[in-house]
From TrEMBL:
Keywords: Cell membrane, Membrane, Transmembrane, Transmembrane helix, Transport. The keyword Nucleotide-binding does not apply. This is Biotin transporter. The chain crosses the membrane at residues 30-47, 52-69, 75-96, 108-132, 144-171. GO terms for cellular component: plasma membrane. It is found in: Cell membrane. GO terms for molecular function: biotin transmembrane transporter activity. It comes from Clostridium cellulovorans (strain ATCC 35296 / DSM 3052 / OCM 3 / 743B). The keyword Cell membrane applies. PANTHER family: BIOTIN TRANSPORTER BIOY.
């Protein structure tokens, strides 16, 4: 990390993702939360490495026992069917940040596409982990369609709304952060 400001921003996005875990709508199997919202903003604002680091710290803090996940915390959380989504947050923040770093002028549409690319990895890891966890170590046989339906279909609508909202916020906030010297190499326009 270059400086203290980066450290603070990484910690801030780790904390915001933790807060997002508690803003939830309970739906069967996979609750709808605001974790993805903050994960996406971490990637677009902090870039690939720092964005992913913020999510690694979030997951690490939860695994050492802090109750920052939707259902608590601790090392045994790796056995929860939804743990794959947490792995997906790390990958998503990295992918979103990497896309942001490659784009010369970041528009609303490009931001939406970057967020959707990250969201793809969240669902990829989440649905596969959900399927494997139920079938292998929870001892409940479920079909891949079941995992796909409850792990993707029931959740995607809310995350698409969050994608549009986060994209709008990112396009508005990034120029302010650039002007203040918090980020560089980014040009935005609606």
């Amino acid at each position: 990390m270059k400086n203290t400001r980066d450290l603070i921003l990484v910690a801030l996005f780790a904390a915001l993702t933790a807060v997002g875990a508690f803003i939830k709508i309970p739906i069967p199997y996979v609750p709808f939360t605001l974790q993805y919202f903050f994960c996406a903003l971490a990637g677009i604002i902090l870039g690939s490495k720092l964005g992913a680091l913020s999510q690694i710290i979030y997951v690490a803090v939860g695994l050492v026992g802090a109750p920052v996940f939707t259902d608590g915390g601790g090392i045994t959380y790796i056995f929860k069917p939804t743990f794959g989504y947490l792995i997906g947050f790390i990958v998503a923040a990295y992918v979103i940040g990497k896309i942001r770093e490659k784009i010369i002028e970041l528009t609303f549409i490009k931001t939406v596409l970057a967020f959707l690319s990250g969201l793809f990895f969240i669902y990829l890891f989440g649905v596969i982990y959900l399927y494997i966890s139920y079938n292998l170590y929870l001892g409940k046989s479920i079909s891949f369609y079941f995992a796909f339906f409850y792990g993707f279909i029931t959740c995607i609508g809310g995350d698409l709304v969050l994608t549009v909202l986060a994209s709008y916020i990112a396009i508005r906030v990034l120029p302010i952060l650039k002007k203040a010297g918090y980020i560089s190499k980014i040009s935005t326009s609606l």
